[in-house]
Amino acid sequence: MSNHTPGPWKVVPKETQRPDYRPYAIWAGETASWMGVKVAEVLEVSDGHSMRDDWKKANADLIVTAPELLEALKGILHLALEMRGTKTLGTFELSAIEAAKYAITKAEGKGQL
User: Fold this and answer.
1) pLDDT at 75
2) What CA–CA distance (Å, rounded) separates 26 from 47?
3) Residue 68: what pLDDT?
4) What is the 3-state secondary structure (H, E, C) of the chain?
5) Same domain, residue pair 59 and 34
6) 24 near 14, Cβ under 8 Å?
7) The total number of structural domains that make up the chain
8) Are residues 75 and 56 both part of a single domain?
9) Is residue 26 part of a domain?
10) Is residue 2 part of a domain?
11) Same domain? 60 vs 82
12) 13 exposed, middle or buried (CB, 10 Å; 0-12, 13-18, 19+)?
């Protein structure tokens, strides 16, 4: 079971006074900017270097899909484990199962940070 903020999550660009600075907020809830819960923000790099806006947007898009990716991976892992009982799996399949287990454990906060 996951303890993350329930979705759906949305990416909302934040308005700023600087045209060269465009952070993105990730909100959970039905109405993203006033009734929802802020899950995360994608900001500038802290060492003073700018991050390309397309990278910030891509990072925000990846974060916003995390709950769906986690649930999809759990479903795929369940199917793979069922297959393991009926079919001999090769090295690739067994490695993929272990990678999925590791990623799920990490996403659920049970792995090392």
Assistant:
1) 96
2) 22
3) 92
4) CCCCCCCCEEEEECCCCCCCCCCEEEEECCCCCCCCEEEEEECCCCCCCCCCHHHHHHHHHHHHCHHHHHHHHHHHHHHHHHHHHHCCCCHHHHHHHHHHHHHHHHHCCCCCC
5) yes
6) yes
7) 2
8) no
9) yes
10) no
11) no
12) middle
List the domain range (segments joined by +) for residue 91: 68-107
pLDDT in tens, the chain (113 residues): 567 888 788 888 777 666 666 678 888 876 544 567 888 888 766 566 667 778 888 889 999 999 999 999 999 999 999 888 788 888 999 999 999 999 999 998 886 65
In the block, which residue shows the tokens 């003073």?
Answer: 48
- Which residues lie across from 26 on neighbouring strands? 11, 40
20 within some domain = yes
